[in-house]
Amino acid sequence: MKTEHVYPVPADIAASTRITEEVYREMYDRSVKDPEGFWAELAQEFVSWNAPWQRVGRWNFDTPAIEWFSGARLNVSYNCLDRHLADRGAQTAILWEGDQPGDQRRLTYGELHDRVCRFANVLKSHGVGKGDRVCIYLPMIPEAAVAMLACARIGAIHSIVFGGFSSEALKDRILDADCRLVVCADEGRRGGKFVPLKHNVDAALSQCPLVETVLVVRHTARPVDWTEGRDRWFHEAVESASPDCPPEDMEAEDPLFILYTSGSTGKPKGVVHTTGGYLLFAAVTHKYVFDYRDGEVYWCTADIGWITGHSYVVYGPLCNGATTLMFEGVPTYPTPARLWQIIDKYQVSIFYTAPTVIRALMGLGTDWVKQADRHSLRILGSVGEPINPEAWEWYYQEVGEKRCPVLDTWWQTETGGIMITPLPGATPLKPGSATRPFFGVVPVILDAQGNELTGPAEGVLAIAASWPGQARTVFRNHDRFRETYFALYPGKYFTGDGARRDADGYYWITGRVDDVINVSGHRLGTAEIESALTLHDSVAEAAVVGYPHNIKGQGIYAFVTLVADATPSEDLKRELIERVREEIGAIATPDIIQWTPALPKTRSGKIMRRILRKIAANDLDQLGDTSTLADPAVVEDIIRGKPA
Ligand code: ATP
Ligand code: MG
């Protein structure tokens, strides 16, 4: 894009960092030239092992077969709890802020350890053991972390289903993972509304005959239906259980969890992560990317139903002995000042959220931000979608007041942890760029034939070597794992995303490869065109897709949501087209602009261009799997609003 600023490392950060630009380069070089030596050292520093590995890393991307630290023994809950007790038993592990302002709890490492051991014994008493699958369907409450760590303690494999999913989606995931036990709550609370979790479980289980036990957290304490013999209150079970539960000795390659991807592109896949490599990668990235310092309060807003919640609400921070904040509610309840007030209340130093949140709050105006002073903030992060430069700038200037680096972190459910990202003290920032690879990560850009491009280039983003946090398989479907990620470009991990590498070696994610638009033979990523549209003050959000066009092959169809106080007009359309021509060029000129009150999003807040593409092409009877949509009504609105 024409408008490209470079922001140097903020002075305060530069003065106190261990990882300067020079150190980053040295460490990165070492990490890719001697990955085994590099990861072995970090494995000693970050993780406590019961027995050593035979081999640090061994993989081939053909079968594919991926192993890290095989032969080594450890337990994830021991690493996240027991080993901290001597020094940090009384330190807060989890700060919890409920949906209702004033609802709050805190758990020390000692208390969390006690709950986890008790709940692990409850699971055992219901016959759950090593390798069994447990479905967790909970709101953002501390019991979610307790349930995850209790599974890890006894070697059970958790499969968390986001609390916003319907009973249908829950049923599919319980059946696919073959879960025998479900942990849920009576209800969740979001934005002042009640979410009927237990009710959804009851509906799902009518079609899941193998589930024998449901453990129910009493959260809102309103009445729920009860199936005697199957349902049991979580708190009663925990109170009566013994607090003594030795951690199961696990092999590094034993599965830790299954997690279904968010479903932006199609049918969700049950991605499997294992014990040793995953924990190490989550802990190392948490420490270096966020520059986490002892005693700081760290807040990642992601739900535990997503990989970000797994790696950066629970496993990474707790492995590092951090204080992690969990928030049950939504950014706009009771007012759009909520997030910033929470930051003040708990003196949050590090804040990690998603572009959809930033864009929504930006559209509501900066006054809400100013209601809090935010002095505690040191680091800001973003994940989930490309962050358009306009939103990046707002986050940097208004929220962080130019003090806090904005870390645009690119990664996926399948990568387990952050892959491409700035490091606070090492990386000058360019709004809209995820910048450079993390240690041990070898991104490559390929052309359509799979040739590796060097220097500045644009194409398909792939990863050339394994890293410890890499997913090992798709649950009970290794063929799908191979076909999805390793078949198209042999010997490389195919990310499904496109990227551009600039002359400084910075990476810019251009969008999903499936979403690429081909105009008269020119391949255009969606991110850049959307960024150009959102540069206009009247535009809150935009999504572009290709549609069949007689002359150009594909034309560009833009769905645009305006900010609260803007009015749609033909003049505004002309201005937007002009803006795209200036920023990118005539080739990217939208052929059609449709105003829409909202865009279809997954429940994790990502724009679902797949559905917009069908609407643009008038394939209305082929919208595909819409079960992961946050609000299906949005699709109806857009279909109705289509220009004739
Ligand atoms: P599915 O794989 O089921 O279609 P999904 O890809 O949305 O779902 P996730 O693993 O949660 O599931 O998301 C990873 C994807 O999110 C990336 O492949 C990329 O497209 C997008 N993404 C994440 N972070 C960034 C980022 N910082 N910049 C650009 N895109 C990002
Ligand atoms: Mg994906």
UniProtKB/TrEMBL annotation:
PTM notes: Acetylated. Deacetylation by the SIR2-homolog deacetylase activates the enzyme.
Record: residues binding Mg(2+): 536, 539
Gene Ontology MF annotations: acetate-CoA ligase activity
Enzyme class per UniProt: ligase
Catalytic reaction equation(s): acetate + ATP + CoA = acetyl-CoA + AMP + diphosphate
Lineage: superkingdom: Bacteria
PTM sites of type N6-acetyllysine: 606
Segments forming domain AMP-binding enzyme C-terminal: 528-606
AMP-dependent synthetase/ligase domain segment(s): 83-464
Stored SUPFAM superfamilies: Acetyl-CoA synthetase-like (SSF56801)
Cofactor: Mg(2+)
Domain Acetyl-coenzyme A synthetase N-terminal per the UniProt entry, residue ranges: 24-80
Keywords in alphabetical order: Acetylation, ATP-binding, Ligase, Magnesium, Metal-binding, Nucleotide-binding
Residues that hold CoA according to the record: 190-193, 308, 520, 581
Binding site for ATP: 384-386, 408-413, 497, 512, 523
Annotated EC: 6.2.1.1
PANTHER family: ACETYL-COENZYME A SYNTHETASE, ACETYL-COENZYME A SYNTHETASE 1
UniProt family annotation: Belongs to the ATP-dependent AMP-binding enzyme family.
Function summary: Catalyzes the conversion of acetate into acetyl-CoA (AcCoA), an essential intermediate at the junction of anabolic and catabolic pathways. AcsA undergoes a two-step reaction. In the first half reaction, AcsA combines acetate with ATP to form acetyl-adenylate (AcAMP) intermediate. In the second half reaction, it can then transfer the acetyl group from AcAMP to the sulfhydryl group of CoA, forming the product AcCoA.
Name by which UniProt lists this protein: Acetyl-coenzyme A synthetase
Gene that this polypeptide is encoded by: acs
